[in-house]
Design a protein that fits this description.
The protein is α/β, with parallel strands linked by helices. The chain has one domain (about 5-235): Acetylglutamate kinase-like (Carbamate kinase, 3-Layer(aba) Sandwich), CATH 3.40.1160.10. The protein is about 35% helix and about 20% strand. The protein is built from 8 helices and 11 strands. The protein is globular and about 50 Å long.
Length: about 240
């Protein structure tokens, strides 16, 4: 495979691990996701991975009444670690070397995040799964993905979703919704298109990391994306 992007940061939502229900853990969904990542790595792509925690707990939508945001976010942060270990297990069952690195130290189960060590793992062909977000409340895993993509010098941040790109309105509700093939960072922020949260888009703009939004349920989308074929929606400097 001829590669356009040789180092990618893949951001997947926790809901994708939950399969059709979006909650808990769906073995088929997890196995399918792992297959795609393994294929990417064996094609020579250096892969960093950030997984959300929406299948377990989302801090901004806490089901617990009157829970303060910091506590809820800390619970969500721990949820990303659970998902990271889940993906590590799925990938290593397929004989792919991985490392989980956490923004909050928990040495018994993962390495503490260190930029130089993470780069070394990528260079050795290991998939690095970045867990625990940025380690801080009030920051989403989108922002964590943008931060790690910037630190790793990723060629692209690929946001894996259940939709084949960014639309001018919700395609599930509007038959006349139009998909954008390319957008600028500034236009995404100005139009509040919610590709990723505003902090993540602004960080990618500042560090010139393109964002590519694809439908991960289309198994052809990810290999086409890294090969440089037109797929999904590309957000860059324009």
């Amino acid at each position: 495979m001829k590669l356009k992007y040789k180092r990618v940061l893949l951001k997947i939502s926790g809901e994708l691990l939950g399969g059709p229900s979006g909650g808990g853990f769906d073995p088929d969904a997890i196995d399918g996701m792992a297959d795609q990542i393994v294929a990417l790595a064996r094609a020579g792509v250096e892969v960093g991975l950030v997984v959300g925690a929406g299948n377990i707990f989302r801090g901004t939508r806490s089901p617990v009444p009157d829970m303060d945001r910091v506590t809820a976010d800390h619970m969500g942060i721990l949820g990303t670690v659970i998902n990271a270990i889940c993906m590590q297990n799925a990938l290593e069952r397929k004989k792919l070397a991985t490392r989980v690195m956490t923004a909050i130290e928990m040495r018994a189960i993962a390495e503490p995040y260190a930029r130089r060590r993470a780069l070394r793992h990528l260079e050795k062909g290991r998939v690095v799964i970045f867990a625990a977000g940025t380690g801080n409340p009030f920051f989403t895993t989108d922002t964590a993905a943008a931060l790690r993509a910037s630190e790793m010098g990723a060629d692209v941040l690929i946001k894996a979703t259940k939709v084949d790109g960014v639309y001018d309105k919700d395609p599930a509700l509007h038959d006349d919704a139009v998909r954008f093939r390319q957008l600028s960072y500034t236009e995404v922020l100005r139009r509040n298109l919610r590709v990723m949260d505003g902090a993540a888009v602004a960080l990618c703009r500042e560090n010139r990391v393109p964002i590519l939004v694809i439908n991960i349920e289309d198994t052809d989308a990810l290999p086409q994306a890294v090969a440089g074929h037109e797929v999904g929606t590309l957000v860059d400097a324009g």
